[in-house]
Design goal:
69% helix, mainly alpha
Length: 375
């Protein structure tokens, strides 16, 4: 009996000591331990992106055409011209993603070959040989997003458990691994957006104008990857101004409180104003991007005819990751198809016709996006 106890102690004793040391380490550096564990989980999740090849569409992506023109001609345009012919300036999409791809291509000759649409059939057949730097950077952006989700949730709640739960929810619904291996700017847009929201939250707590300005810069950068954060900037600036003006104190104190939303708005304008000025100079309106954003708007307008009876199903279907499965489990097989992108009869499919109608109604040099907004 005594021998068995001694053998058990020889096994469990070191384990108990090791567990105690981990517990002591966690109590001394709780935040570092939580972040470290989350990073390990995040890296493991995103590593799933590397078990599949990079996903490329059948046609040469708009971002590749634009980045290639930047590298070869120094012109922001998606036009494909004959060798030696300079393409005309355009605004086919927001500038952030094409400029980032162009910068990578200038440092990596293989990527520079990969974004040449003349050889797209060859590069698409062997995507991992050409586009690994882009996938690596997109995966790194995905990891950065989860770190910022954790930091933002911790800043707002003060509870590490809630912050970890927010990261888990984001991992489940955000498809970070998928966005690491597709030609989309989602991870970069979200990285800049969450960084801006985190810095804004810290700036609000500390009352520092410099942090408000830095938050504006970050959200302005997010708008250069995907214009929707520009609306978020305006909404936050108005909300911050309202809070400052309604705060108790003298009129002079309220005016001083407006320095925070002012710094925030100026930070965003510092990033977006040069591209807005370019659009005004070349095209006569301040739209950051036209073609890609007009297509997105057309696809959103395609859902306008949806009857109210379909709304509950649509809300269920659009739950990240599990929505379609829940919808079909409750209402039958195929009921989620019309809320997707590819199935025959899907609402989304009408977007192509809406965009084509908007294009035909837009005069040469005009903005299809503005035409769709007006109609």
């Amino acid at each position: 009996m005594g021998g068995s106890r001694r053998k058990a102690l020889r096994v469990t004793g070191p384990l108990s000591y090791f567990g105690g040391r981990i517990t002591a380490f966690e109590k001394r550096w709780p935040t570092q331990v939580a972040v470290g564990l989350l990073l390990i989980i995040t890296i493991a999740v995103l590593s799933g992106a590397y078990r599949k090849p990079i996903t490329l569409p059948d046609h040469c992506p708009l971002a590749f055409r634009t980045a290639h023109n930047l590298v070869v001609h120094g012109t922001f345009s998606a036009a494909m011209t004959a060798p030696g012919v300079q393409p005309a300036s355009g605004r086919p999409m927001p500038p952030g993603y094409p400029y980032l791809i162009a910068a990578l291509a200038m440092a990596d000759p293989r990527l520079a070959q990969g974004i040449d649409c003349e050889a797209y059939a060859e590069t698409r057949a062997r995507p991992n040989a050409y586009f690994q730097p882009l996938r690596l950077l997109q995966a790194a952006a995905g990891i950065g997003i989860l770190v910022l989700v954790y930091c933002l949730a911790l800043e707002l709640t003060g509870a590490r458990g809630i912050a970890c739960a927010c990261v888990v929810v984001y991992v489940v619904g955000a498809k970070l691994g998928e966005f690491a291996r597709v030609i989309e700017p989602e991870n970069f847009r979200n990285l800049a957006m969450f960084l801006g929201l985190y810095v804004l939250t810290v700036g609000y707590r500390k009352g520092q104008s410099a942090l408000f300005g830095a938050a504006g810069v970050s959200l302005g950068l997010a708008a250069l990857f995907y214009p929707s954060p520009a609306v978020l900037v305006l909404a936050l600036a108005l909300a911050l101004s309202a809070v400052a003006w309604m705060s108790p104190g003298t009129v002079a104190q309220r005016w001083r409180g407006l320095r925070y939303p002012t710094a925030f708005l100026l930070g965003a304008l510092l990033v977006t104003a040069p591209w807005t000025a370019r659009s005004l100079y070349h095209f006569g309106d301040p739209i950051l991007a036209d073609r890609a954003q007009a297509q997105l708007l057309a696809f959103r307008l395609a859902y306008n005819p949806m009857p109210i009876s379909d709304w509950p199903l649509a809300i269920l279907s659009w739950i990240p990751s599990y929505g379609n499965m829940i919808t079909e489990l409750l209402f039958g097989e195929g009921t989620a198809d019309r809320f997707g992108n590819l199935a025959p009869g899907a609402y989304f499919a009408n977007g192509h016709a809406i965009y084509a109608a908007g294009s035909s109604a837009t005069p040469p040099g005009g903005s299809v996006l503005l035409t769709l907004w007006r109609t």
